[in-house]
């Protein structure tokens, strides 16, 4: 779930939250979602309004199979940033894992509409639209 362009978080590089976020992001990139989730949850406690932290934590939770938690994270992002294509994509993926394909379809289609050139979003929509 990592094709989109990422923006750098807009908080102080010397802050504890930023340090936790950076360390958590490294664990996430190195495929250690449990360690990432622990650090990212601490960062989110310090900076509760940061979508960059919410997204990373949601990705870690998804990787851990914590789909309810991931759904909540990505819903929080979509609520404040309805044009965030990746949040719609990740929310759709979480909803699929929770067995809610109709809800998932709406978010996956919206992600594709927001970023029509994305092969990731095209594949997700294509797979969802295939008959079982």
Question: What is the topology?
Answer:
Layout: H1 16-29, H2 33-46, H3 51-63, H4 67-80, H5 85-97, H6 101-114, H7 119-129
Helix pairs in contact: 1-2, 1-3, 2-3, 3-4, 4-5, 5-6, 6-7
Overall 3D form: elongated
Beta-strand content:
under 5%
- The CATH H-level superfamily of the largest domain is Tetratricopeptide repeat domain
Judging by the overall fold, what is the CATH architecture of the largest domain?
Alpha Horseshoe
- Order of helices and strands, N to C? HHHHHHH
What would the CATH topology of the largest domain be?
Serine Threonine Protein Phosphatase 5, Tetratricopeptide repeat
Uncertain segments: none
Which structural class is indicated by helix and strand composition?
Answer: mainly alpha
User: What percent of the residues sit in helical stretches (DSSP H or I)?
Assistant: over 70%
Q: Main sheet?
A: none
């Amino acid at each position: 779930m990592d094709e989109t362009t990422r923006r750098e978080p807009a908080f102080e590089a010397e802050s504890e939250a930023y340090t936790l976020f950076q360390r958590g992001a490294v664990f996430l990139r190195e495929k250690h979602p449990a360690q990432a989730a622990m650090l990212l949850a601490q960062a989110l406690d310090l900076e509760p309004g940061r979508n960059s932290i919410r997204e990373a934590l949601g990705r870690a939770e998804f990787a851990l199979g914590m789909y309810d938690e991931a759904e909540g994270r990505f819903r929080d992002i979509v609520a404040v940033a309805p044009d965030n294509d990746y949040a719609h994509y990740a929310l759709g993926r979480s909803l699929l894992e929770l067995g809610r394909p109709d809800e998932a379809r709406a978010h996956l289609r919206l992600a594709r509409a927001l970023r029509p050139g994305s092969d990731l979003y095209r594949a997700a929509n294509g797979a969802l639209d295939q008959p079982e």
